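Dear H.,

Thanks for agreeing to be a second pair of eyes. The structure we're designing against is below in token form, covering all 220 positions.
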């Protein structure tokens, strides 16, 4: 019996080098709205959905934080950067997905980002076709580090969590996938894992291309 039936991907910071673009858009929008370099808060909000970020920003900048204006402005700036510079895909994404397809391994998505934004990014990158099932941030009631999104992603591709590798760059995602009973693998982006996070994941790798021999190792 095989030990790995699915690879469940996070998206921002894992598939795409998008967190740095998000950080730039937050800094520009924050400065324009009078809050300063809001992008420096991204290190504390990785894996958060919109609601979680709003709670965090209001705690940091006050209850009158202009969340709707901030979201609209950051979205506009993000897409301007994306259209002019593009959003780079991380090393090994396509190779890992091709490997999974050839090996009969299901591919799922568990992202805190909204469906519209996610599908647009994945489609433009030419990799939307690889996914067998997806769960987006606007499809769950509880965000990472709650395991809900990963449990639903496993259900969406019809696999048992214990036989699914969760691929994550953020601590909240590692906590969520561990709580879901999966095999968490961390590919750090903006932050390195703490000792606590190291105790929760199965392996840390530097790029997604390194997941291929890891799957082969698990299958032995």
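And this is the sequence the design step returned. I haven't edited it by hand at all.
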């Amino acid at each position: 019996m095989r030990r790995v039936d699915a690879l469940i991907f996070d998206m921002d910071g894992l598939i795409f080098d998008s967190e740095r673009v998000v950080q730039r858009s937050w800094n520009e929008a924050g400065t324009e709205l009078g809050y300063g370099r809001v992008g420096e808060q991204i290190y504390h909000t990785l894996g958060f959905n919109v609601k979680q970020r709003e709670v965090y920003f209001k705690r940091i900048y006050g209850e009158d934080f202009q969340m709707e204006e901030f979201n609209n402005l950051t979205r506009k700036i993000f897409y301007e950067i994306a259209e002019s510079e593009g959003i780079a895909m991380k090393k090994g994404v396509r190779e890992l997905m091709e490997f999974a397809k050839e090996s009969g391994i299901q591919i799922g998505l568990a992202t805190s980002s909204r469906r519209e934004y996610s599908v647009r990014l994945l489609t433009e990158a030419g990799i939307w076709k690889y996914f067998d099932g997806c769960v987006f941030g606007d499809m769950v009631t509880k965000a990472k580090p709650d395991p809900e999104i990963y449990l639903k992603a496993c259900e969406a591709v019809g696999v048992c969590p214990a036989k699914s590798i969760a691929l994550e760059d953020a601590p909240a995602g590692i906590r969520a996938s561990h709580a879901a009973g999966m095999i968490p693998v961390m590919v750090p982006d903006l932050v390195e894992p703490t000792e606590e996070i190291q105790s929760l994941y199965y392996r840390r790798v530097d790029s997604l291309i390194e997941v291929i021999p890891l799957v082969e190792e698990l299958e032995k």
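Two observations from my side: The beta strands are 6-9, 106-110, 133-135, 164-168, 183-186, 203-204. The mean pLDDT is 95.

Warmly,
E.
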